[in-house]
Each structure stands twice: as structure tokens, then as C-alpha cells.
Amino acid sequence: FRPLESGKTNVLVAWQIPEEKTDELGRLIAQYREVKNCVARRPHEDFPYGLYATIEAPSLRKCHEVLGEIEAEVGRWPFTSLLTLKICKRSLLNYFSDEWENWTRPRLMLS
């Protein structure tokens, strides 16, 4: 387990919204710089939340401010939020494969 990056707070927010609103509201929520991911999942009878977003900001207060901005834009829907205490795994995207680097390096004369 690793702590969050120094100076960062991470909150997972789950909203209970009608399924037909998921695409529209998901696109709006995903536009916020502090939203690191936004996904839809099938709600469950015991956990009726279907739209999830991870908000990352310098403080919990800032995360709550962003959540308030989101609510002002998409409307107030029932939600729950979970504060991240530690990260068990975080994968970085690999935009360029080794194959791409091996092809470009000789052509760009990079060492």
C-alpha cells in the first residue's frame, strides 16, 4: 500500500441517477480537470449508485468544492462518497510502446 501523492486528496463519488441520464451527466462530470476518471456501472439493489467519479485535489475541502460545482451543473442527485486512504495499485498509461520507441529512435537520432 502506498499513501497518496504528497498534497493530494482523492474521493470516489457515486451518484444514484436514472440510467437514461448516465451518458449526459457522465460527459459533463468528466470535463472537470479534478475528475481523474468517470465510469458507469450497473446499480445493485443494495447499492443503487450507477455513476462514479474520482475527484483528486490538493485538499478534502477542494474536493468538496469541486463536488459542489458539479452539482451546480448537473443537478443534485443522491450520492455517497468515499475518501481514499491508501492506493493499492495505480497504473500509468503507456502511450508509446517499446516497438514505437525502437522505430522512432534511429529515425530521430535519439540515444
- Summed up, the helix count is 3
Following the backbone from N to C, one meets helices and strands in this order, namely EHEEHEH
Radius of gyration: 18 Å
Report how far apart the termini are: 35 Å
Choose one word for the global shape: extended
Portion of residues in beta strands equals 15-25%
Low-confidence stretches: none
Describe what you observe in this structure.
The chain has 111 residues and is α+β, with helices and mostly antiparallel strands. Helices cover 32% and strands 23% of the residues. It contains 3 helices and 4 strands, in the order βαββαβα. The longest helix has 15 residues, at 60-74. The protein is extended. 15% of the residues are buried.
Key traits:
111 residues, alpha+beta, four-stranded antiparallel β-sheet, extended
Topology of this structure?
Blueprint: E1 9-15, H1 22-30, E2 35-40, E3 51-57, H2 60-74, E4 79-83, H3 98-108
Antiparallel strand pairs: 1-3, 1-4, 2-3
